[in-house]
Amino acid sequence: LLSESTRRHWLRTASAAATWTALTETLAAQPASDEAFWHVVKRQFPLEEGLLYFNAANVCPASRAVLDRHAAYLRDFQANPSFQNRDKYAELHAKVRARTARLLRARPDEIALTRNTSEGTNLIVHGLDLKRGDEVIVHDHNHPSNLDSWLVRASREGFAVRILPVTFPAPSRAALLEPIAKAITPQTKVIATTHVTNTTGLRFPVDEIGKLAQQRGIWFHLDGAQSFGALDVDVTAVGCDSYAASAHKWMMGPLEAGVLYVRAARAAQVWPSIVSAGWTGRLTGSARFEVFGQRDDARLTALDAALDFLELFGLPKVEARVRELTIYLKDQLGRLPGVEMRTNREPELSGGVVKLGLGPRNIAQVYDALYQKHRVAIAMTGSGPTSGLRFSPHVYNTLDDAARLVDAVRQSL
Ligand SMILES: Cc1ncc(COP(=O)(O)O)c(C=O)c1O
Q1: Which one in 154, 184, 271, 293 has a CA-CA gap of 20 to 30 Å to 63?
Q2: What is the CA(184)–ligand 1 centre distance, in A?
């Protein structure tokens, strides 16, 4: 599918293909229970030597395989921007939609390729018909794209947004479900929540929320920024009507690429927010939400490479590895003096995000020392109930890295 100039470039840099084959063979020869497996994985990322990168919840590095393929398509596009050379991208995008659909147990026509979670969620926020008197239920731990967005629209149009407070660590799944069930009224039109929160890493009982919503015909929008590529998500089993996610987080894909799932049976209820060339009244399903004007074809195609990379392991293996690393961090960091673990330990109540409160200490000082003295790259919340340091490990982190991270935190407190 590549133009002649790109094909030649690839032949010149045939090491990329050789590396991929070697990588596949090396990984196949090692069980994932063997730490050496994860050392091989780590070497696939061009991360700076010595950098302890534990911030997957924000942005993940892309592996060399993904970067190379992205660059090859970008070069191909720029070398020959003719319609003829670009024809192939429609097919490549269709492939990405189909593969994403398989990953999420959806249908290809239920997947739109967006810029990120924020865009996907806002397409839902602004696309649903809502009027004065209607109610939308959200959580106070929702990301601004799934909280402030609703408030902005509501302040213009007069519907109500009920913001439920989140208790963390959560005592049980039921304790997360009950307040939602109680908040539902005949006026409730939407429940919009987060699969795994970026604030404290709490994982919501989405299957149960999906049932609650479905029984009452309420639209259920799920923010999947912290679950896409990290957890084995089945949107059909969850029963959500829409799910938005970014490729540049746990998927380790290109920046500014994302996906929006909208359940086929209800897609016609969402108005498109952006309409441009390519629009026809006959578009159906998620294609209606993807008429954005000129796209960055190479970037969207790089998602295909990210899916290939993920398939080297498969999501269950990724999920298990992330759990192993987070359990290690929770156990080790949680026993440091004067700290407070803000994240649940139970797998059904947590994902890849770990938040550690530091008591009365100056969080910014500890955070700065961690980067400046120890090359530890994480995230922090400076104040408020969710204050503390946030750690989010991924497949490119080894247990050695995790041990060095814990040591660095111990020395920085
Ligand atoms: C839970 C959650 N939702 C939405 C977003 C927004 O993601 P993006 O900036 O890729 O749109 C983030 C980003 O960190 C997030 O953590």
Answers
A1: 293
A2: 26
